[in-house]
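Hey, can you fold this?
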Amino acid sequence: MTKEFPNWLSLTEQAAALNSRELSSVELVTAHLDRIAEINPATNAIVTLEPERALVAAREADRRRTAGEEGLPPLFGVPMTHKDTHDTAGIRTTYGSELFVDHVPQRTSTVVARLQGAGVISTGKSNVPEFAAGAHTANHVFGTTRNPFDLTRSAAGSSGGAAVAIACGVQAAGDGSDTGGSLRLPASFNNIVGLRPSHGWIPRTFPEDPWQWLSQPGFMARTVDDVAWLMELSNDTGSARSSPHFWPMRWEATDLSGIVVGFSPDLGGLVELEAEVRDVVAGAASVFADLGARLTETVPDLSEARNVFRTARAYEFAANLREVDEAHPRRLKASLQADVDAGLALIAPDLFDFDRARARLWVAMNDFFSTHEVLVTVTSQVLPFSADEEYPTRINSRPVEDYMAWVDSTTLISATGCPALSVPAGFSSSGLPIGLQIIGPVGGDATVLRVARCFEAATGYARRRPDL
């Protein structure tokens, strides 16, 4: 069974099969590459592939394991593609931009380096929107990534290629990043798990900006346990304390007795929801009650969150892309160019007001989490939309003002700095996945994982696979 269907094993199971030598790394890498060949013509999830390099690494992994070498890393010989905005030394990394179509970096980003340090074999790159801007995975270099549950629909973004690869059994788990929902939204659209962690769980090392807090690297997988394990490994592999913020990971899973949950699908009326999304997420309340949690309808005061998010996002995009914009004037896609321009236009009073607003938001979240362990809400306000659109232009009868407004459900949470996870919550009448978002206090990532694990075990929605 293991050798026939190794792609559908969890990350934990793949590692165990390799360590017991029930499965070889060459067999696992070959199955990984074969699955890409099967699903990629339809989904366009993987955009750069290094099969020869991967097989050489797999043969070496098998040689060392057969020789009885001790102290091998826990994921030694497991294949994985990486998000195309994460630098990988020696492997093309385009950032989804025509300006970097032949770019091969000399360094590896911290999150990928941690995976490689844990023994992962890097096989290639997964698709992204240009510079990870926007929650729909499409660009002018590689085209559009399509949802495996309905190939006419979006896979979301910006970690859409990675999410599709995981959902389709290419790999058990993978890295991504999340500014305004780029791990959570693809997880929701593809029926997998995605965690945006607290700042510092996965540290950035120079020349990355260790103080950049809005965009966070993180992981997706088909199970909560695998996300939790990657969180542990990414903290323990290398020098996690190179980050200015650090909390040691503690993972345990029990029932939810005594847990107080603030439950509100629309965040107290703050976000507009499609009817099927609202109904499916509302039905999750009984699951939490059956697990022993006490539910309230209380939500934190998020009135400052929209402006905080948009200011921080403009600042980070301008800081990260200013030199690209100067070298290639007006070559960025229109929506991204507008973000960079907004960041460059910020003046000192804007930043003073931003700091005060962020402080008020911090107090509001601390007040909420003084009486609640987690906040539970919707991940995406809409079902997966047409892959031919950049973003949905209406939610119910209300026009969507721009390409960020349809994801207020995740961007408002990003502004708080709190860890947030999307877990499968059910399906629409047409079989499209719907995700539930679980949010905890800053540093409370283990609590979020614990609650999500209990929900996952009680519902079983994550076991449903796309039929390609």
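Oh, and this one too while you're at it.
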Amino acid sequence: MKYDYNKMQAKLSLLPLLVFVSIFLGTGIYLQSNGVDYAFYQLPAPVAILPAILLAFFLNKQTINSSVETFVNGAGHNNIITMCLIYLLAGAFSTVAGATGGVDAIVNAGLDVIPAAFLLPGLFLISGIIATAMGTSMGTIGAIGPIAYAVSIKTGIDPALIAGTVVSGAIFGDNLSIISDTTIAATKTQGCEMKDKFKENLSFSVPAAIITMILLFILSPQTQAFDVTEYDLLLVLPYAFILILAVMGFNVFAVLISGIIFAGVIGFTGNYEAGAFVKDIYKGFSGMQEIFLLSMLIGGLSEFIRINGGLEYIAKKIQFLTHIISDKFNKKIADQLGIAALVFASNLCIANNTVAIIVSGPIAKKLAEDGKISSKRSASLLDIFACIVQGILPYGAQALLLGATFKLSPWEVSTSAFYCFILALTAILVICFRSNKEK
């Protein structure tokens, strides 16, 4: 269904998102500058977004019933509900595994094997491998997050740095995975084969990953060993179990549910009781309440932007700018930058990289055809720049989940995702210097 709205309404539809970002980030930055502890937690994000939602209802110019239906459709979108369920299961696994003593065991086992100088690069690679196998950055973060948090506590490494490393690895792998939702969406909208898009992505992702690993090596602790206490290898099994399932490509829900059950079974061999197991599952669910609510509220807000023409307005502006740039510079470069800017801006509004690709896909395909850009290149650009935004977005699912896991503000997590920033720079350089050779 196509919505016909005037330009002013399309512009106004973007205003609620700007209001939310201004309130949430503005309050946190202001309080942080005044030395307030946990500055970004003083105003809960689900509360900060309420004025934006009320404004969206007012600007929608429909009946209350119609506006409520629009909001509920967005909040109940398949991708939103999927993310929320992953939140719950990740929280439950983390709580159960921690209660059985698995966290201490896996941390000490890891520190016993990996030299201190390679902790961060190793964590980046492991996250990337799992995300490539699972096809989801969220599933990877759900599996790796609790382990990474425990490592930060044990080693004293800045938790924001470790959280950013996990996001970086998860985005790296998700972007390359041939079973990722983003890959499927990008290849289907652009009409190319997944294997071709994978090969095209390598020219962008591999250089960025190498630079990131070098940077992480430099930032790793200088000490060569940590104090490792005695640990029970049996308690490591739940983590090994979910990692093996992830690498084998099992569905993220199957991985996390199996992990919860397996962690409980291992706990039962000791002093862990069935009553505690049930309560810990619910405790894990409760710990994800804030990001669960915020994800649904953002989904509802994004639906107002979509139906009122906000994304279409952005797309038209980008097409206009690419025409201006192409008149003065290389048209192929201009159109590729246009595709990148299109999906970048769309994901800023939607906070969901898969949906952003689906929304931007048809316009990106037209830009690619006009600029004689191959479908594999346009698909690669869509996936890359959608993932870049998703990794650095303070109100994106990845930063929210790791923020809750690490007890950090989402802002601290997103600004520490170095790979995403490096990938953005690498991608722009590849666009500018390899465009004439791209076929």
